[in-house]
Structures are given as structure tokens and as C-alpha cells.
Amino acid sequence: MIWWTWVSALAGTCPTPASLSDVEGRLDEAEHAYEELDAAGAVAALDQMGLELPCVDAVVGAETAVRIHRMYALLAWGEGRQADAVRSLAAMKRIDPDVTLPEALVPPGHELHAALADAHPGRPTAIAAAELGEIVFDGAPRPDGLPSDPTIAQYVVDGAVSWTTRVASGGALPSYPMLAPPPPPVAEPTRRPIKATTVLAASAGALTAGLFGGAWLARAGFDNYEPDAGMSGTDARSALDGRRTAVTALTVASGVSALGTGVLVVVAL
């Protein structure tokens, strides 16, 4: 049985680093065995490649990645795991939308050709940016994130490969130093500007209050008016009329001021 998920290997944990030539040599063995209808030999070669891939010392390019996904698709299809095969076919299409299956491996008319034509890469998953270096998938960075189909993921820093792993569909990346996202901006409290109409409304309100107070005092003075003992009737009536006029004038003025204040308040709001 093939190991479909590999554990990543950090630099220094592999007894012997593997080269791309080693990986491609295992692929040659697997493809040759598959052409010879030697399923056991193809599985054994691909398993050996799976052990060497985490120790690869260089970036796995797109062409090699396509061969890896293709070999997994062929063996999965032969074992009756069509869903796994289609996911690997979709990974091939993601790398090269015009990719085809060589007739040496898949004869014309085989249903795998139709399955490849119908395969569609899934939506990627966003990942955090690396603090140092970058994460590459099948030989190239992908700003849209981790592919949802199988992928050869590598963490590369200054050209050196720190780890390599084949991530199956729905899998997760090994750990790596992530760049912390910037803190969200602190929203400042919204201060509503004081408009000129607001100041006018406040001033008019104060004036209205003063006029109402003056009218109330004038009314009280009118109601409680007592003429002096030595004042003639004509003078007393004249004084009383003056107080009445003052009450009327202040009352009208306060009413007009109140109306103006109301208009200014509505404008201010």
C-alpha cells in the first residue's frame, strides 16, 4: 500500500540528503514498472521516492511535480480509488492547464483521459506569510494560498530548502515561522463638529430664556403694582399702561425668539 501522506523533514534530520536526480530516478523506475504492468514494482518505486522526497535538497520544479501527481493518479485509479486519482489529476491541471497523459502510460481511449479533461483544481486556502523565505507549491509561490488538491510544498529560505512534503487534499502544512499580521487600526472616536447653526441655536435659546424671564417679571410687576399715595390718577394710569406695554413687548419678543430657536435647532440637527 502506498504512503499517501508524508511527514515533513526539517533540514538536518535526513541521514542523507536526496537530489532531484534521485527523485526523478525513482519516478523513472515507477513509470517503467507501470508500462510493464508491474504494479508491485511501480508501488515499491513510488514508496521509495516518498521516503526520499522529504530529504530533497532543491526545489521540485513544475515538470517533476506533474510526474509525481501523475504517478499517484495512475496507481490510485488502478486500485479503484477514483476520487484520489481525480484529485491528483486536478493537481496536474493546476500546474499545467494543457497537460495530457502520455500514451506510453495511458493508451488512447482510456477513461483516464476523459477524467483529466474534466478535472478542475479546487479553491486554495489562505496561509500566513513566512517571516523568512517563502512557501512554494509544485515549484512556484502561490499568493492565493495552499492548493486544495495534492501539492509538493517546500519551505525555502535564501535558496535553501528547509523542508519538503507532499500535502494531500485537505492536509495542513508543517510548521514554519509565520509573519505576524499587523495589529488592526484603533478607531478614533468620532467627534461631531460643532456647526455655526448649533452655536446660534444655543445663543438663541439663552436669549429666549432671558426674554421669558423678563416677561414673567414684568407680568408680576404689573399684577402687583400699587400706585404711590401722592400720585395722581393720571400718573398712576400712565405708569400702569407702561408696565402693560412692557409685559406685551417682552411676551411677543420671547415668543418670536422661541420660534427662531426651534428653527435653528432643526437646522443644527
Order of helices and strands: HHHHHEEEEHH
Strand content: 5-15%
Largest beta-sheet details:
4 strands, antiparallel
- Rg: 44 Å
The low-pLDDT segments are 1-12, 263-268
Instruction: Give the rounded overall mean pLDDT.
Output: 78
What's the structural domain tally? 2
* Number of E strands: 4
What's the helix count? 7
Shape: elongated
The helix content is: 40-55%
What topology, given as strand order, has the largest sheet? 2-1-3-4
Q: Structural class of the secondary elements?
A: alpha+beta
Cα(first) to Cα(last) distance is 76 Å
Structure description:
- With 269 residues, the chain is of the alpha+beta class.
- It has helices at 20-35, 39-52, 62-78, 82-95, 111-118, 196-223, 233-268; strands at 134-137, 140-141, 151-157, 160-167.
- It has two domains: 20-167, no CATH class; 196-268.
- The chain has seven helices and four strands.
- A four-stranded antiparallel β-sheet has the order 2-1-3-4, with helices on one face.
- 49% of the residues lie in helices and 8% in strands.
- Residues 1-12 and 263-268 have low confidence and may be disordered.
Write the layout of secondary structure elements.
Elements: H1 20-35, H2 39-52, H3 62-78, H4 82-95, H5 111-118, E1 134-137, E2 140-141, E3 151-157, E4 160-167, H6 196-223, H7 233-268
Antiparallel strand pairs: 1-2, 1-3, 3-4
Helix pairs in contact: 1-2, 1-3, 3-4, 6-7
Labels describing this entry:
elongated; 269 residues; alpha+beta; 49% helix; 2 domains
